[in-house]
Amino acid sequence: MKMKICIVYDTKRQRGATVHIVQWMLEELKKMSINADAKRVDEVDSFDYDVFIVGSPIYYEKPMKSVVDFLQKNKDKLSSKKVAVFIVCLATSLGKLASWYVKRRYLKLLEKSAGRSLVKSGVFKGWIRKPNYSERERVIKWIRKLISSIYARN
Ligand SMILES: Cc1cc2nc3c(=O)[nH]c(=O)nc-3n(C[C@H](O)[C@H](O)[C@H](O)COP(=O)(O)O)c2cc1C
């Protein structure tokens, strides 16, 4: 099967962590010869993909409304697809309790909105000013795992 992937995201900072993370995903998918596009939520004009990877930064304790809305409004269209969700935040660096909180509170809304299409979720560490290139390795591992789990299901 030749799979086609769409990475859907939003951010308030066009040079921020989310855009970097999406770029790292695209590069890795390209290396794996997988056909992938990245679109901001408001640019999505086709659902002709097998997999949607949908991501949002966390600002003030919440994923962006535009991203949650994308999942909720397109629930029917996404119901026949595989959906992975991820968030980009800083709370993960604060220790175990914060990581638990991040999963419960920040991720839950996206996971719930993806419904039964959800195949994987991820939490990546963003930054305020200085890019955290050490997160790249985790992003690559995550996307590789996602792809192999999708191949394993088919
Ligand atoms: C205005 C603002 C509010 C933020 N609020 C939170 C928060 O509530 N929890 C958290 O873990 N990180 C928070 N962060 C950290 C961001 O999640 C982090 O900077 C991330 O990289 C943002 O994505 P971006 O780089 O694509 O903008 C906040 C950052 C900003 C700039």
Descriptive account of the structure:
This protein has 154 residues and is α/β, with parallel strands linked by helices. The chain has a single domain, classed as Rossmann fold (3-Layer(aba) Sandwich). It contains 5 helices and 6 strands, in the order E-H-E-E-E-H-H-E-H-E-H. Strands 1, 2, 3, 4, 5 and 6 form a 6-stranded mixed β-sheet that branches. A hairpin with a 2-residue loop joins strand 3 and strand 4. It is globular and about 40 Å long. The protein starts with a strand and ends with a helix. The mean pLDDT is 94. Flavin mononucleotide binds next to helix 1, strand 3 and strand 5. The site of flavin mononucleotide has 18 residues, from helix 1, strand 3 and strand 5.
Offer a few descriptive terms:
154 residues; Rossmann fold; 6-stranded mixed β-sheet; 6 strands; 43% helix; globular; binds flavin mononucleotide
At a glance:
With 154 residues, the protein is α/β, with parallel strands linked by helices. It has helices spanning 17-31, 65-73, 75-78, 96-114, 135-153, and strands spanning 4-9, 35-40, 51-59, 62-63, 82-89, 118-125. Strands 1, 2, 3, 4, 5 and 6 form a six-stranded mixed sheet that branches.
Average pLDDT number: 94
Distance between the termini: 9 Å
Q: Indicate the proportion of strand residues.
A: 25-35%
Largest sheet properties:
6 strands, mixed
The hetero molecules present are: flavin mononucleotide
Name of the CATH superfamily? Flavodoxin domain
Strand segment count:
6
One letter per element, helices H and strands E, the order comes to EHEEEHHEHEH
Low-confidence stretches: none
Shape: globular
Q: In total, how many domains does the architecture comprise? A: 1
> Helix/strand-derived class?
alpha/beta
Task: Kindly state the percentage of residues in helix.
Answer: 40-55%
Helix count equals 5
* CATH class label: Alpha Beta
